[in-house]
Amino acid sequence: MNFFLTIIVDGLIQASWLFIVALGLTLVFGVLKILNIAHGSLYALGAYVAATAVTMAAARSLPPGVGFVAMLISVALIASAVGLLLERGLLKMFYGRDEVVLLLVTYAVFLVLEDATKLIWGVNPIYATQPYELFGNLEFAGLYYVGYDLVLIPISAAIGFAIWFGLNRTITGKIVLAVIHNEEMSVSMGVRVNRVYAFAFATGALLAAIAGALTAPKISIQPGLSSDVIILSFAIVVIGGLGSVEGAAVGALLVGLARAASVHLMPQAELFVIYLVMAGVLVFRPEGLFKREMARRI
Amino acid sequence: MNKGMHPLLMIALVAAVTLCGRVLPTWTLSLATIAAANALISLGIVVLARTGNVSFGQGLFYAGGGYCVALIANAWGLTDAVAQVIIGAICGGLLGLVIGPLIARYSGIFFGMLTLALSMVFYGALVKSTALGGSDGFNVGRPTLFGMSFADPREADFMLYAVAVVTTGIAGIAATILFRSEFGLASLAVRENNLRVEYLGLSANRIISINFVIAAIFAGASGAFALMAQRHIDPQFAYWTTSGEFVFVAVLAGNQSVAAVFVASMALELVRSFSNLYLPNTWQLVLGLFLLAVILFLPRGIGSLWVRSKRGTAKPGVATEREALP
Amino acid sequence: MNRRLRMAVLASAAALAVAIAAPAFAQETFKLGIVTFLSGPAADSFGVPARNGGQFVIDQLNKGAAPSPYEKVGFGGMKIEPVIIDENGGATKQVQELRNLYQRDNVDAVLGYIGSGDCLAVAPIAEELKKFLILMDCGTPRIFEESKYNYVFRTAAHATMDNVGLIRYMKAKNVKMETLSAINQDYAWGQDSRTDFVAAAGQLYPNAKLATDLLPKFGAGQYGTEISALVSAGSDVVYSSLWGGDLQSFILQASPRGLPKRSQLVFSAADHVLPPLGDKMPDGTIIGARGAYGLMSKKSPLNDWLFKGYEAANGVYPVQAAYRMTQAILGLKAAVEKAMAKNGGKKPSTDELVAAMTGLEWPSPGGLIQMKLADGHQAIQPIAFGRTKYNPDAKRVDLVDIEYFDAECVNPPAGVKSLDWIKGGMQGAKCK
Known about the structure:
Distance between the termini of chain A: 55 Å
Shape of chain C: globular
Number of helices of chain A: 11
Largest sheet of chain C: 7 strands, mixed
Strand content of chain A: under 5%
Number of strands of chain C: 15
Strand order of the largest sheet of chain A: 1-2
CATH superfamily of the largest domain in chain C: Response regulator
Number of strands of chain A: 2
Oligomer: heterotrimer
Mean pLDDT of chain C: 87
CATH topology of the largest domain in chain C: Rossmann fold
Number of helices of chain C: 16
């Protein structure tokens, strides 16, 4: 019993940050129809900015709690700004081109951001460990867990709920949904699609960066962080269905639990388990779990 | 495709480039060999892209061809360069035959992501295979040609260069002929609208599969060249950023000219080589900005610098306008 | 197409062509290609310390400021002119870079390489070009066990001694190990280290059982699930060959969850994470440094010279990679000067250099280096292990309980493959 509880808790901890990243990716795809390869770089950006903020707070000997809040605020500000800049300054120029061209543009952005982070923060790993001790440790199912890891679960659930609520229960959200659903019709109804695009991309960037910031205290932040995250979050949104919020949640849970189960039961299969889940889903639902079949033009 | 160049002229061009290798400095020879090999695989991506699908996982076939050749070379002592290329092409092609039909029913982004996922699974499997040297890979002996072995490093480099240029040249000519054929035009039609193609009685899946296999054959042969040039293979061949660079070359080259693929590939290798010496840590930055500039200012690739295409002709390939909504 | 843009593109292509033209030719200097990680995950832990070590040593040698027996300026009077290249980017790129170093930059010798995959890939290229190559660090024993090279040398012991020595240390210190868990990265270094350690444990701890055996992927960064599995297993010993950022992340995440309290941690190559981790490193952890390096180095004038000089120049004491770079450069210096003594003081040819290097022995800050394996092409060297203890006054992690092992106690004899040697009961080992 304890054993399964351990797997579930480990899986939930993993799923929590994966969900936030995947949510951003799926939102951007839903609105802009862009599969953003640079999404992982925005995650890395969040982690780097967080580390800088935490280090600066620690240098002024502020308590870790203040550092944690400062970290989230600074990441939110910088990531939204970078997101807006990317969308308004760059992606805008390529709208109307083939979706594969946009994929390549984001690949180029990935390459640029990869080196830009190296130029700004150097190639050496940096750390932001202070907030990791913020919530203490607690014993659960016979094991010690770091409070911070467990706190991530409700945080991620709250972010998920906020996005769901924002989309389904507010005017702005309904407008965004309208654009997701039928862009042409929204335009003719007077929706300023450009604003929706900018807003959605900035939110996506924000989510990626927040996920990076939240994981930053537990890891060593170094170049190469982004490419792993891209692959993982792609797998999740493909499992869940591109553009679906519920799909991102279910996909993240599936991937998190599958990884945790394989580490405990069959460590040698860990590398493949995500792809197995993905292949299994795609065989039965080629568009992912939560994607409705769309009528298409002939 | 531009209708400009006659195949005979192309053969002459290939011969001229091959002979050029006699006067190039030694270090550029191996660089050019790698560039030719990369051009070959990127050419495959261009072929496949004419159906509207971009593979982000050509590394799978590149590594497949390379490992296949390396294992056979070590097991049976087969060292002949031409035979190795053929084996690489066959292995790549066989893998393509298995995977192509499975994947042909997906399109656009799903296609790209699934190819990427498959190559990453292959990468993972290779890293796990300690019998194949795991992540460190293993070495193979130096290649021979028709029973001749080359002790002098420069001669050995030239031999490989010549085989690579001739093979890529032949592939380029074959691709040109293919592009002009009925099948090549049908491929373009799939990109424009696969349902309409189906209504004409053609199988879009079959067309995509065949183009996929061609791309896989090119990739397998390219893997064989990469193996011969560096006598070493490791799972990095299948990593997604390796595949990304091939897509990069394809986009850079555009589809205006087969020669452009070679030029783009050579330019990439030169920039890589010098940026490492003078601009460490900014190489990807340069690459990314370059890619953005090409997509923005030369949507049809650097081939359009010397090939003027007529207005209004079809614009096949990777970097094109999205069809106007009906 | 815009005409001006086309001109610009063509002009830049022409500029590139000019930039490629004629490399400079050097005389009365020794042009030395140095390859080490300047970027990527291994840069901070190994690559940059190696470069800093190289710069310090070359600087000192060129000034003639090194202690005996290396007081001669440069290499036998020739100033050393280094060309430093980044090792990051994979084996494919390194093969091309090595060719460029020899053929375009006309270096006299190349020295470097930390990654095993890079070493395996570049060795046959140097052999084929008949150029002198020193591998300074990489771990895998496969390089000389699977092939034979004339122009390639490795001036540091391979990874076998890291794990054989570790087991010998644990036995010497009566560390209890009835059950054993392992966590290693899923790539060649991790897989090979794990195999060696488990095989060596099988010899000296025949009753030890392997409980959890984890191979997370390289650069995974988050080890929450793995730590749960390790803590649940609760083995006597948890072994790991993790290094760099991965090892630091692992320790940061494992300490609060009580892993160091439940199991004895043993890390085969961890000295380089002591300075960055500081008091986050749990006390009592057994660590190796892949040699008698850094805080575990023996006192000697040569070692003082490196330790103090490096610390003064870089603000942190030298760790394994700096030592390995130093011993490689000193070995090359010894070989060049030996060859020059033989040929009457001329700059030695590659073949003269090869003859001088084969079977050479020279003193280094980490002890005596002997090119005893692979027909005089592969070095063996002594190694040390110790336990961590945080020193709050000096604000650094000290090492206590240090034990040294002779080179021939932890390295296989010539002509035996390392894994066969371990599994065969480590026959012929000469231990004190």
